[in-house]
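Session log. Operator J.P. requested a structure for one protein chain; no other inputs attached. Running the standard single-chain path with token output.
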Amino acid sequence: MSIVENHAVELPRISEASVADYVALLKPRVMSLVVFTALVGLVIAPVPLHPVLAITSILCIAVGGGAAGALNMWYEGDIDALMTRTANRPIPRGRVTRPEALAFALTLAFFSVMTLGTLVNWLAGALLAFTIFFYAVVYTMWLKRSTAQNIVIGGAAGALPPVVAWAAATGSLSPEPILLFLIIFLWTPPHFWALALFRSDDYARANVPMLPVVAGPDATRLQILLYTVVLVAVAISPWPLGYFSAVYGVTSVVLGAGMLWFAIQVYRHRTGRLAGHATRALFKFSLLYLFMLFAVLLLEVAVSALLRAVW
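Structure written below.
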């Protein structure tokens, strides 16, 4: 009997991952929000950026955001497998190994930061590097499993793309991108806590200390309402402060009234089908709220450019 017959030969693993699996690692839905808010920060900046550099900046921010998402999935493969919402992600399904995901994420992070820094400016590159680090290390590795305030502090990472884009265009910072940062930062808790309210069993099973699991649903509803009040006030403030126009101001007032109404419904309805309906309605409206708030800024720039071209 030969040696081959006596001893099992360990063959190298052939990856089963498809392109779609690697795209899923980038969290494309989150990436779309990153790209959109970054585009607004880039477009409203007072310094026009060369189209090639503008496209480069947005691509680098998108890839950097995807790298942060992939690092998040690499580290959270164990808890993703326990949650219904995330069990079908590539790592829990075994289609992408954690070392493969880590190598993919680090490669994207390195090249996105270096490209943005080298071709555009190093302030933008440094801010992108900090964004990736904050999401992957501060939020994912530290806050997510250690405190119920995880999404509050960790939300800073998701709020930075318009700041990075503004820095790419101007090479500096100013109040406008800081206000955009604050809007997204304050929007994040009510948005994700609404999701957490109807996914609390998932988080409890994975032992993730989201606010509804640790403090209970009633305390979470109160926090949602309080954060929404502050969010609406901050989102309206750029208008009276003179940074954004009356069109933005009126839009923020109308949308803010909607956010407050939905947050009040979440606070009022605490049991039964109405409670579930209220939290889902707030979650969905919050997406529309942020999109419309930023879209009106894009629309204003587009209309102004069109009027200048015509006249």
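Operator note: The first helix runs from residue 3 to 6.
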